[in-house]
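#lab-general

N.A. 3:47 PM
ok so I finally got the sequence cleaned up, no stray characters, all 193 residues accounted for. can someone with queue access submit it? mine expired

B.Y. 3:52 PM
send it over

N.A. 3:53 PM
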Amino acid sequence: MEDEGGMTELQKLEAGLDYSFADPELQARKDLASMRCARLNETLPGTREHLQATRLLLGTDRDDVDLEPGFHCDCGLNIHVGKGFVANYNVTVLDVAPVEIGDHVMIGPGTLIATVGHPLSAKARRDKMCHAERVVIGDDVWVGGNATILPGVTIGDGAVVAAGAVVTRDVPAHSVVAGVPAKVVRRLEDDAG
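B.Y. 4:20 PM
back already:
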């Protein structure tokens, strides 16, 4: 559906502008992802069916992706993962905007990665408006259980996000962040070589 400026809601989203999530094209994309997640979650990890469902869902076609049951996302095709990606139980990725994940990343159970946020204005929320920003997670990152990563965040290579942390801003490479909001609590040696 186009507005007076000639842009569809999807084009607004992709341009980094506010958009309406009630748009039929965006809702159809979300519905397709929900169906693909349901199919994925009905298969046993490590089986051919699970691998096929993973390939159909994600934007990256890899053989070495481990998505445990309870995985949910908004689009799926906006999730790009590197080698050896592991998402433990009940991980949710709200990938309205791209989520770029490096090699050898582990995401703990119950984690939320969100690229989408809603306005402070009650009227704008009633109008179903939102804004999306990509999330980037570097190589060799470990995100502990029940962590939350908010829109626009970049997590540097080798970083660790402690369980329960709420990441509201960029995380430096080779550091441990913890708390709400997450803050650097320790520096790490780069031993991945």
